[in-house]
Amino acid sequence: MNQAPRIPALATHGLTKSFGKPAVDNLDLEIRAGEFYALLGPNGAGKTTTLRMVAGLLKPDRGSISIFGINALAEPVAAKRLTAWVSDEPMIYDKLTPFEYLEFVAGLWGIEAASAEPAARELIDWLGLAPHANERCEGFSRGMRQKVALAGALVHDPSLIILDEPLTGLDAGTARQVKEVLQERVRGGRTVIMTTHILEVAERMAGRIGVISRGRLIAEGTLDELRGEGARDRSLEDVFLSLIAESAEA
Amino acid sequence: MIAPATPAWFARHELRIAWREWQSMMTANNRRRLSTVIISLAIFFAILHLPAYVMVGHFASPHKVVDKATLLTVTISLCLYGSLMLSQAMESVTRAFYARADLDLVLSSPVSAREVFAVRIASIAFTVSIMAVLLAGPFVNILALQGGPRWLAGYGLAFALGAGAAAIAVALTVALFRLLGPRRTRLVAQIVAAVVGAATVIGIQVMAILRYGTLARPSTLASDALLALAPDDNSVAWLPARAVMGDLSALAAVAATCLALLAAAILAFSGRFGEHALAASSVALGPTRPRQRRAGFRVVKPAAALRRKEWQLLRRDPWLASQTLTQLLYLLPPALLLSRNFGGAAGSTVIVVLVLVTVAGQLAGGLAWLAISGEDAPDMVASAPIPPGAVRRAKVEAVMGAVAVIFAPILIALAFASLRSAYIAATGIALATISSIQIQLWFQSQAQRRHFRRRHTSSRVATFAEAFSSFAWAGAAGLAVSGAWQAGLAALFALIILAGTRAISPRKATE
Fold first, then answer.
1. What is the spatial distance between Cα B65 and Cα B62, in angstroms, rounded to a whole number?
2. pTM listed for this prediction
């Protein structure tokens, strides 16, 4: 029986962006719906630039971006309806409470109050923000701010969640909460694409891993595929460092 | 070589930090601009001698008799000047409490905290005094040129008043701390600083309007009634006035008093300064007072959500509150003038319209910067499914709504006096507001709201364009009220300013 091909959650073709020198160079990526994809690379490899282009925050010089089949460059509003962006620096409003922040985000995404409010309350509870839900964010620690930003990203139930180093600077407890929330979303059929420098996180959470260096995808696959035949005991760190070294020599 | 951890060493550190903060504020962190900034300031300083000549040139005759009326006029002028210095000093002290990131380092080091904070208070006094001297410079120079070198004593007095203002500012801020606690002090001190800066100017105008039915200069206030109430010629109250006019013994007395005040403030407060500063810095770490839990989510359309967010943030921004309050205070004299001449003199209405339109343009510029450039979550808003044009439109509407709410009551009052004037004022306010917003859109550059104080450094062109377009629209409205055909010329001038600004704006290419 012929099965219709599933539309990828994200597909980029020939994606290119240059800031004087190439930051992302002819990048082809395909991320399946419902998978947890980790994008790894050394500093300056082009990970953040790639994700910012996907989230509609940066215009590519060339190439295409498709989000669930929608041309994100031609129809940015339709594509953005399906995505959420979380950066390593939680940018929220100091003078709003988490509850008000989520209310604002739900308004921006045009979510009905009837569905947005229970989702917001659930996220606030789940991320341990309930005791602070009606305090202004100005006194919050970095971890709490990151949780508020994450709750904002999830309150409109995005199909594609794009995260750039979301665990930077978080304590162990907060990091675990964030990871659990993300895994739960993937179990619920959502797609997550995340950059991280914490290789253990990618090793444990990601279904597939892409390694990017100097703006190009140099390897992609499951952890076992990246390790290669006969090297099942190699850690992701060993694999990553050898890939980067090979890329530098090439 | 200065030995480490001595007061002189700390003083050098404090002055270096103060200098670099000033440099960064003036050059928007671009050190290559420093020479341009210094040359521009020197030119500006030189140009200030012209208005100074107009204001005090006639006052400095070498043969002028120092009578009570002269002393009263000089004293009133010094009160104006002192209030500005006190406002500036309160700003500096509040910033030292809340914005310094080195408290943990200083207090965890094996040096005497009292010594460190004594130096810190002294360095605040020094920077305020330098500012006082620079502000007084053009006036003192003109007076010395016209009336002889005795007027150079004004420099000494300015320096002393700066030190005295710093002492009073430290005492006031610490008192606010003890009275209100660290969280409220930040807001109240900022508002007090703004009000103090404006209060004397506005107070004198209010007095003049109540007494003479017109706006006033200090000399017009030296009336017979006030002179009758003033103390004898030999009173110590005239010492600052005598000092500025070259009486060296009076200068020595005032300087000694101000320095004694500063020494007392250092002795009394340096021990607790660190404690208060730590309390202030921990405000950011501690939980805020929970707000009343709302009944439920009120999710609205994206544009409405953006407008509501902007208004919420504007309402909750203490610094903005103080800025807004100051600008609104300047509306008090024209409002009073209006009520005194209700339905009468066209001249008063012209002044009211002029002030309304100017303040509206300036206020809209500040609000537009906060809404358009001072977006604290730019990525989140940019990643939302709303076209950028709709985001901009919602923010513009939020600013216009805020301006409308502030000016509507005054316009209604004006309409009772003169419907035509109210209509012209409303048009002028709308045009000045739209112009300021448009300039902010052209010069939009991403920044954090907390950098509101530094917004002028991101683009001086935008700052000047905003001010000149407000003045031009105000001029056009004022002339229109008085029925002068030159109103059209002033409006044309405003449009030329806007066209010129657009031509050199970085946004032109992206439109």
1. 9
2. 0.70
